[in-house]
Amino acid sequence: MKKLLATTLAVIIIFLPLGCRGEENGQEELPTAAPEHSLLPTLPPPAVQEPEDSLRVAGRQERDLNPLYPKHYANQSLLKLVYQPLYEVGLDGRLQAVLARDYRWSADGLTLTVSLEKDRSFHDGKALQAEDVIASFRTYLSVQLPAGPLPQEDPDDPQDDLILEEVERDDLYEKGPLFQPLDFSLMNLDRLAALENIAGLEALSDEILTITLFSPDPLLLRHLTFPVLPQAYARERSMNPAPGTGPWILARDGNDAFSLTALDGNHQVTRIQVTAFSRVQEAVAAFEAGDIDLLLMNSSETALYADRSRIRKQRLEDGGFISLYFAGRGENALAMRDALLYVFQNDPTFDLIGAPLSGASYPILSGDFRLKEGRLPVYLAPAPDQGSLKQNDLDQDDSGRPQDSVYLPFRLLVPEDFLPARLIDRIGSALLQLGRQLTIIRASSDNWQAALNSGRYDAALLVEALDGFPDPADYLDGLDQAGLLDWSQLLDPTDRVFLLDARQTMVNFGSGGGEAIEGYPDCLLRVFGQLPVLGLAVSGTMVWYSNHVEGSLVGTWYSPYLGVEDLLVWGP
User: Fold this and answer.
1) How far is residue 417's CA from residue 506's CA, in Å, rounded to a whole number?
2) What's the number of CA atoms in the CB half-sphere (13 Å) around residue 241?
3) Residues 203, 195: contact at Cβ < 8 Å?
4) What pLDDT digit, counting tens, does each position of 326-381 carry?
5) HSE on the CB side for 468, CA within 13 Å?
6) If phi over 0 gives left and psi between -120 and 50 gives alpha, with beta otherwise, what is residue 247?
7) Chain segment 239-248, per-residue pLDDT in tens
8) Which domains does the chain possess?
């Protein structure tokens, strides 16, 4: 027996290094939208006990259960089981129809006609109609955009104007004390500009509606992912839930609790019991006390608790992207970018620079259908020439002379309350090797745009967030919207057209969409190598499972509760 055990151990030791091979030179393993699991196993089920049909999860306290108003990620993810959109983002980044049957554009590209699926009803039995979609869309636009009418293309034609009802904005959503990346996202500026381009909505029949625009936008379908409620409930802000069209029914269970019941009872889990907490710390305490079976965290909460051990957890990389924008003049900005990247790439712990976030050079995930495989070429920075790292105007005293210091200051503009803070510490350590001393300049969300446009910094830490797959063209459009750079003027026109066409394939139903794009990785390498930006990491969300839960969710961060009905829950 001892001989057999020794032989087995020897075999394990021989094969262990084979699973620890490093990355290929110049290649980056992309973050994935697919789940990543910890190694802590689920406890074996009892020998006789039958699994429970109810799952206890943690939610967050809200002032209403209307999904058209902002919600915490944990609640929003649950509500997606109840309320469905016209279109949603699939597991590989492609847009797919849900309540919409088909669509067509007018010849001038200014009118989109959408036909709804037939025989679709809400949980109260009322048939889905175009007026329900329009009422939901109006509420969504009122929440997302400032109150008041949108600009008129023709002031003499009142039908050209989409009048939005006033929404109380002071108490729209209790965000809590943690970092809110969407408030600082430049990609969000581009999304809001697309919504402001909507001129009007009209129901042509019970099953057909039109959306008119001020200017053509072939990507409009990406913004039709709002949940659809019955017209009578679209603007109601109540804890009494509206009926939806999804596979689960929502019900209120007391002041701070609600539940979801599956329409199809032929599954392991047919009821989700939600306990709402005011802070993530309270939810964590309830989980550790055994009162919660599953705990879903947003990206800021994940940054706080990602390192917690002895818990079975699942990481879901999301559409957030963290990067540096260098504000120096021309070649000096690129030289500073290359110097900092060179230090990073010669650090054996470079892959962990964004920890607990996953490192990423580009705003794209490996699950993206446009990529053939999960690796992208990485720009390899040349060795820095210290003479090329010229002082900028900020490194001068009041008389205009260079500051006399062993370490020249490097001013980094950072969003207020940014998480994880350790990423900034790693940037500071790398800068010391270049003879620069990190100085932090923090700006609130209200002042973020003004701080970016001031240029009074050497680099800015950009934090992107969006409710969909990240796209490189969206990231570059965000820089343009913020006035930081005009990528149409800085890049080869062929590369720009290539990236725009690649983005368009995300909404091309049945017309070339869904296929990997030859040359896409090489184009990303060329484009990001020419611009004064440096990709650092993608953010992520996280699921904790108690030892009483067997199995895992199979969705992405966009729809994390996919497969929840197939979990096995063994009572404590």
Assistant:
1) 34
2) 27
3) no
4) 997 767 899 999 999 999 999 877 767 777 788 889 999 878 888 877 678 888 99
5) 23
6) alpha
7) 999 999 999 9
8) 64-233 (3.90.76.10), 319-540 (3.10.105.10)
